[in-house]
Design a protein that fits this description.
Oligomer: homodimer
Structural class of chain A: alpha/beta
Strand order of the largest sheet of chain A: 7-6-8-9-11-10
Radius of gyration of chain A: 28 Å
Helix content of chain A: 40-55%
Shape of chain A: elongated
Chain lengths: 677, 677
C-alpha cells in the first residue's frame, strides 16, 4: 500500500469509527467528523509532537479543538494514537464513560480543552500560544518551542469571539499558532452560504494572518500546508481546508450522502443514510466496525516510535539546558507545578481608606515583582480597573517581544477571558484579567467553562455597584453579583464550589482576597472591587490579621457583648454598616457586624463556625448594593435586607447613596424598624 | 462666513458644549466627542431626515450611537437641533436630568437607543436596517425608505460582536445602512495601535461592505462620503473617518492637547489641559461657554425649515400611498402602534404529551400565519430549537429579497439578540429569536439592555436542563434559569419586573406562555422550553383553560382537599411531581401540585392570591432541574428543594433522571422524609 493510500485508509478508519460511535450512541455528530478525518490523521501521524510516555511534558505541541461536537473525530484519532481504547469508543456519550458527548479536558488522554460552545476553543489556543511565547522569552527556545494547533469549524468562524482571537493573534504575531479551518459549507441548520457570504481568507489577512487554502481531504495538500505554516516565522497561519461533510456516507442504494445538512447532528441512519453501506464504502466491515485496521495500527505504531525518538532528543536538550541554566530549570519546574513563590502578604502596606481597586493595584504591584510567571490583562481599562498596578512594574506583550507580562486585550472581554483560560490550560503561567464588573456579563460563557475545567484564572472586576455614579445604569452592576455567585452554588465534578467569588470590604480584606485567589489553584476566583474609597474597618488590634477571617468566607468584624442585632454585608456596604452601627450604639443598641466576602465559602465551613458568626435565631439586617437576594439566604426569615432592586441612575455616587438609602441614617432607620417588629 | 467656515464653527460649538458639559459635571468623556463633532454636525445639519414636529414619524432616518460615552457630542448636536435645552446640557450626569452619563433611549428627544456597552449600538443599527427592509418589502418604498446611520468608535470595532454585525449586514446586503467609524487611534487606556494592527477597511470589505476612508474632521470629505454611501445600492457602507481625539484642546500655555489618551475619559482640566484656553481656541467665551452661536443657531434653524418641507412632501406621498393602499395604511398604523391581530389561542391544537419546544413550534406556525409583522430568528438551530415551526410557514430573509420573515442569524447568539433589539427599536415589527438555553449566557449583555430599554423582544430558549442528555455539561443549563430570572428581580425604571421569564410545564402552558409573551409589550420575555417530551398535566375539565392560571405566574394544577404537602415546580418537573404524587396518594397522602412558570410574576400578585396558591405555613417540596435557589425563595424554611446543584453529565437523559433523582420515586422518597420531620 503506498503512502497516500495508507493515509487515506487511516482517515477512513477514523470516519468509520466516528460514524459508528454516533450510530451506537444514537446521538451525536457524524458528518463533520468524517470530513475532518484527513486533517487530524495527518496532524497526529506526522506533525503533532508529544511524548507518548509523558503526556504532561511541558514542551509538547498542543491541539485545541473548537467544535466539541466533533468529539468522535478526536476520540477516534486519539484511539489510533493509543490514548483511548476501542471499548471506550463504544461507550461514547454514556454515563461515566471516558468519551462524553463533548470532550472534557484530560491532558493524560491528549484532550487539551473542554469544548462545546463554539468559538471558545480556538481562543484558548490563542491564549496557549501567548503563554508559550511568554515562557519561551523567559526559559529559552530549547525547552519552549512548541507549536499550538487549533481546529475550527464554520460555526466557530461565525462566533463573535473570532473577531477577538483573530485580532489578538495577528497583532501579537503568534507564528507558533496554526489553525485549521474545516470549511465544509454545512452548519447545523443550513448551508454556510445561506448565512454568511464573508471572505474568510481576506478577513484573516486583514487581521494579519498568513492564509493558505487547500483541499482539506487531500493528504499531500494538508502536509504541504502544515509544513509551510510551521516555516512561517512572523504570523499565525490559517489553513482553510475545504472538506466534504459526511465524506464517504452512503445510502442503502449506495447514493451519496455527502454534503448534507442532515448528517451534521444525528446518526447517519437517522439522516436516511445507511451506516452499513457507508462502512462498506469506507473499506470497513459493517458487522464489526469498531476495529483499527492492522496497517493503520502500524502507521501509528511507527509514529509512536518516531515520537519516542524525538522525545528522547528533546529530553537530552532539556537536560543540557538545565545544566547550563539551573536557575531556569528550577523556575520551569515550579511554574509548571503551579508553585507560588513566598509572598509576605502581611507586609503589603496598604494606604488607609482607599478604594479596594486601589488596594488591588497595590497587591498587583507586589505580584508583578514577585510572581515571575504571572500575566495580567485588561480589556482597555488598566488605568481604571487598576491593573495598572501590575503594568507599572512591567510592560505589555507585543509582537516579537514577550518579555513583558501585561496583556493589553483591547475592548474584548470574552476574548480576554478565553485567552486567560488558554494560557492556564497551556500551563506554566498564572493568568489574571480585569474589567468593569458590569462587563462580567460578556465573560459569563468563559466563566462557566473555566469553572467546568477547574482552572484557577483570576478575574478582577472593579466598579462593583451603582457607586459607579455618573456613568449611569448601563455601567452600574445590579444583578451581576448575584449572577456570578451562582457559580459558587454550582458544584464542579470534584464536588467543590465551581468558583470562588470574593468582594472584600476594605483594603486589608483586599490583600487577603488576593492571597486567597493566588492560593486557590483548583477553581477560578472572581474578585469584586469598589471604584470609590472606603473607610477601613475598625480593628481590635491588627486589621490585616483580623481580615484573615475572610478566609472562612464570613467573619465577625466587631461586636458588642450580647448583640441585639447582627448586621451583614460584603464590600463597601460593611463600612456603611459600621457607620450605621455608631448611630445605633449611641442609643445603647448592641450590634455585631459581619463581613461576608463569600457566602459560598462560608457555607462550606463547619456548622459550628457558621453558627458562631450568624447565631441561629438572631435578628439580622443585611445591606447590599446588589439584589437583595445576595443576602436573603443568609438573613433568612428572621430579618430583612436592604438591597438595590432596580436599575441604577446617572448621578454622583454620594447623591445616589442618599437617594437609594445606602448611608448610616438608613441603616439606623431600618434596624430600628426591624427591632421594633 | 462661507459655508465651510460656518460648518466648522458649528462643529466647534459642539466641541465647546461637549467639553464644558464634562467639565461642569466633573465626569465624562470629552476627547472623543470633540473629534466626532464634525461628522455629527454634517449629518444632522444636512443629511439626517426627520420630522421636527413628529419625532415618532415611522419613516424617519435613524441614528444609532454605539459609543455611549460620547453622549456629550450627541446631546450637543441634539441641542443645536432643538431637542435639548442649554439648561439640560448643564445638568449633564446629574440626578434626574435628561442628560444622563450614557444616553437612554428617548425617541422624542432623538435618542434612538441606550448605549454604553460598546459594540451593541451599531448592531442595533443592523437590526433596524433589517426591519426597514422587511417593512419596505411589505409596505413599499414610498413610505419606508429611511436610512439607518450608525456611529462606531475604536472600541466598538474591537468588540467581538462586530464580527456578527459586520457579517450579517454584508451578507444581507443592507444598502440602507451607513456606519461612520470614528477612527481616532485613542482608546481608554492606550493608543489603538498598541492593541490592534488589523486592517479595518479590508476586514469590512471581506464582510461585503463598501468602504470609504476620509479625514473625519473635513466637512467636504464627510459630505462626499455620505453622498456616495447614500447612492450605494447593494452594500452597507463603512466610512472610516480619521479624526483627532480632543480636537482643539489646549493647555494653559496654548500647547496642543490633541491625540492624547488622557482626554478620553476625564474632564480636560483633569487631563492637564485648560478648559479656558480650549474654549478660547475654539472661538468661544470661557466665561460663558454654554451658548449656541447665533450663526450656528441660524444654520440649524434653516435645516429645520428644510426638514419641515421635506416632511411635508413625505407626508403628501404617504397620504397618496394610503389612498392607493388603504389596507397597507391600516397595517402600517397597527404595526407601529404595536397592535396584535386577534389570535384564537384556545383554538391552537396541541398534540398531546409533546416537548414544550414542539408545542412552541406549533404556536410559532400560527404566529407566522397571523402576525404579518413578526420576524423570527435562530442562531443556526432552527431545526432543534424548533423555530422551524415559524420558518416552515415563510422563508429566510436574503440579500435583495426581504419578503420572508425568518432571520438565519448564523452561530452568533449575542449578535442575534442585539439585532432583535434593533428591529424592535426601529418599530413596526415584533422580533423573536431562538437558541439553546445554555447559550443564553452569550446573550446576557443584550438581555440586560433589552430590559433596561423596556423592549418586548421574545427570547426562545430550548434544551432547558440536564435532560439535554448526551451533549453533556457544556450544553446542559444548570445556573441559567436562576441567572435569567435575576432580571425578574430587577425593577425597570417604570417599577415593573425588568423581564418576564416563563418556563411552561406542558404543551398547553406553552400556548399560554406564548400568549403572555405576545401580549407583553413593555418588557422582554424569555421562554424556556424542554427538549424532551413531557406528559400533559392532568386537567379537571379543560387543560388549556386551566393552564391560563400561568398568567398569574403560579397556580394550582390539582389538589386534594386539606393537602398535607404542596409540591412546587416549573417546566417538565411539574409532570414529575404528578408522577410522584401518584405514589404518595397511594398511601393516602394528600397533595397540592403547583406550577410556577414565573416566580417574579407570581410575586406581583395580591398577597391573597399568593397565599391561596402557597398557603402560609404549609409543608412545601420543590423540584427543579436548575439550582435549588430557583425555588428556595418560594419554599422557604418550611420545606425543602431537590435541585440540580452541580454541572451535568453526558448520558441519555433517562439515565440522568435516575442517577440525579428526577423521577417519581425520588419525589416520593423526599416528600416522605419531609413529612416525617
Amino acid at each position: 500500500m503506498n503512502d497516500i493510500k495508507l493515509m487515506n485508509r487511516a482517515a477512513d478508519n477514523i470516519r468509520i469509527l466516528a460514524a459508528s460511535m454516533v450510530e451506537k450512541a444514537k446521538s451525536g455528530h457524524p458528518g463533520g467528523a468524517m470530513g475532518g478525518a484527513d486533517f487530524v490523521n495527518v496532524l497526529f501521524s506526522e506533525f503533532l509532537i508529544y511524548d507518548p510516555e509523558n503526556p504532561l511534558w511541558e514542551g509538547r505541541d498542543r491541539f485545541f479543538l473548537d467544535p466539541g461536537h466533533m468529539s468522535p473525530m478526536l476520540y477516534s484519532v486519539l484511539a489510533l494514537a493509543g490514548k483511548f481504547t476501542i471499548e471506550e469508543l463504544m461507550q461514547f456519550r454514556q454515563w461515566g464513560s471516558a468519551t462524553p458527548g463533548h470532550p472534557e479536558v484530560n491532558f493524560q488522554r491528549g484532550i487539551e480543552n473542554s469544548s462545546g460552545p463554539l468559538g471558545q476553543g480556538h481562543t484558548y489556543a490563542v491564549g496557549a500560544a501567548i503563554a508559550a511565547k511568554f515562557l519561551q522569552a523567559r526559559l529559552g527556545k530549547e525547552v519552549m518551542n512548541q507549536t499550538i494547533y487549533a481546529y475550527i469549524s464554520d460555526g466557530g468562524i461565525q462566533e463573535e469571539i473570532s473577531q477577538g482571537s483573530g485580532r489578538v493573534a495577528g497583532t501579537l504575531g503568534l507564528d507558533n499558532l496554526i489553525m485549521f479551518y474545516d470549511a465544509n459549507n454545512i452548519q447545523l441548520s443550513t448551508t454556510v452560504e445561506e448565512v454568511d457570504s464573508e471572505n474568510v481568507a481576506m478577513k484573516y489577512e486583514a487581521w494579519g494572518w498568513k492564509v493558505l487554502t487547500i483541499d482539506g481531504n487531500d493528504v499531500a495538500q494538508i502536509r504541504q500546508a502544515l509544513a509551510e505554516a510551521i516555516a512561517e516565522d512572523k504570523r499565525p497561519t490559517l489553513i482553510i481546508g475545504h472538506t466534504i461533510m459526511g465524506k464517504g456516507a452512503r445510502g442503502a442504494d449506495d447514493a451519496s450522502y455527502e454534503n448534507k445538512v442532515s448528517t451534521h447532528g444525528q446518526p447517519l441512519s437517522a439522516a436516511g443514510a445507511s451506516i452499513e453501506e457507508t462502512i462498506r464504502n469506507l473499506g470497513g466491515d459493517p458487522s464489526n466496525p469498531f476495529v483499527i485496521f492492522p496497517e493503520v495500527a502500524q502507521l501509528y505504531a511507527n509514529r509512536k516510535e518516531e515520537l519516542k525518538t524525538i522525545s528522547a532528543e528533546k529530553k537530552a536538550v532539556k537536560e543540557a539546558w538545565a545544566k547550563m541554566h539551573p536557575d531556569l530549570a528550577v523556575k520551569m519546574e515550579n511554574w509548571f507545578a503551579g508553585k507560588l513563590p513566598a509572598i509576605d502578604w502581611a507586609a503589603i502596606e496598604q494606604k488607609a481608606n482607599q478604594s479596594t481597586r486601589a488596594a488591588s493595584a497595590k497587591v498587583l504591584g507586589v505580584l508583578a515583582e514577585n510572581v515571575e510567571n504571572m500575566i495580567c490583562a485588561s480589556a482597555d481599562l488598566s488605568n481604571s480597573d487598576k491593573t495598572d498596578g501590575f503594568l507599572k512594574k512591567t510592560h505589555a506583550l507585543k509582537k516579537g517581544d514577550f518579555s513583558g507580562a501585561f496583556f493589553q486585550a483591547g475592548v474584548a472581554e470574552l476574548t480576554m477571558a478565553c485567552i486567560c483560560i488558554g494560557m492556564t490550560l497551556h500551563g506554566g503561567v498564572i493568568a489574571a484579567c480585569g474589567t468593569f464588573f458590569v462587563f462580567s456579563d460578556y465573560m459569563k460563557p468563559a466563566l462557566r467553562m473555566a469553572a467546568l475545567m477547574q482552572l484557577p484564572v483570576k478575574f478582577i472586576w472593579t466598579h462593583d455597584a451603582f457607586r459607579v455614579g455618573e456613568d449611569g445604569p448601563t455601567h452600574q452592576p445590579i444583578e451581576q453579583e448575584a449572577q456570578v455567585r451562582l457559580l459558587e452554588k454550582v458544584k464542579n465534578h470534584k464536588g467543590k464550589n465551581a468558583m470562588l467569588v470574593l468582594r472584600p470590604a476594605d483594603v486589608f480584606e483586599t490583600t487577603v482576597a488576593w492571597k486567597m485567589a493566588m492560593e486557590n489553584k483548583s477553581t477560578p476566583t472572581g474578585l469584586i472591587f469598589s471604584r470609590q474609597n472606603i473607610m477601613d474597618l475598625p480593628a481590635a488590634t491588627d486589621r490585616y490579621q483580623e481580615a484573615l477571617g475572610a478566609e472562612k468566607g464570613a467573619y465577625i468584624v466587631n461586636e458588642d457583648t450580647n448583640a441585639d442585632v447582627t448586621l451583614v454585608a460584603s464590600g463597601s456596604e460593611v463600612s456603611t454598616l459600621v457607620d450605621g452601627a455608631a448611630l445605633l450604639r449611641k442609643e445603647g443598641i448592641k450590634v455585631r457586624i459581619v463581613s461576608v466576602p463569600s457566602e459560598g465559602l462560608f457555607r462550606s465551613q463547619s456548622k459550628e463556625y457558621q453558627d458562631s458568626v450568624i447565631a441561629p435565631g438572631s435578628k439580622l439586617f443585611g445591606l447590599t448594593a446588589g439584589l437583595s437576594v445576595n443576602l436573603e439566604g443568609l438573613v433568612g426569615s428572621n430579618g430583612k435586607v436592604w438591597g438595590m432592586n432596580s436599575f441604577g441612575y446617572s448621578a454622583p455616587y454620594k447623591v445616589l447613596d442618599e437617594k437609594l438609602g445606602f448611608n448610616a441614617e438608613n441603616v439606623y432607620r431600618q434596624v430600628k424598624e426591624l427591632l421594633a417588629e
